[in-house]
Amino acid sequence: MTTTDVQPVDVQPIDVTAVGQPGHYALRLYIAGQTPKSVTALRNLQRICEEYLAGVYTIEVIDLRVTPQLAAGDQILALPTLVRHLPTPLVKIIGDLSNTDKVLVGLDIRPEPIN
After folding, report:
1. pLDDT band, residue 57 (cuts 50/70/90)
2. Which of 43, 67, 104, 107 has its CA 20 to 30 A from that of 54?
């Protein structure tokens, strides 16, 4: 069995001043350590956000191995789980976020048509 060297990814906590801006996406990703599935979910989320939400999103990563008590607040039952806090309503997407189309639909993001 081959092991994967997982590198930590630097993500900033949600900026409360930016959150109040119209059209801002406040996203929280719940993970369980630096597992391959957790890292894949984070990288996929960062890619999707940069491509479709550049400049109007904030990602907060919650590692439930470090702070398991935070799972109760968003009623997290599976990992990784993405929670969209803003814009409302609250939305949850479970998995590694590898299916971009499903993530876009789940987050209610309409990509610009290609001409």
Report:
1. very high
2. 67
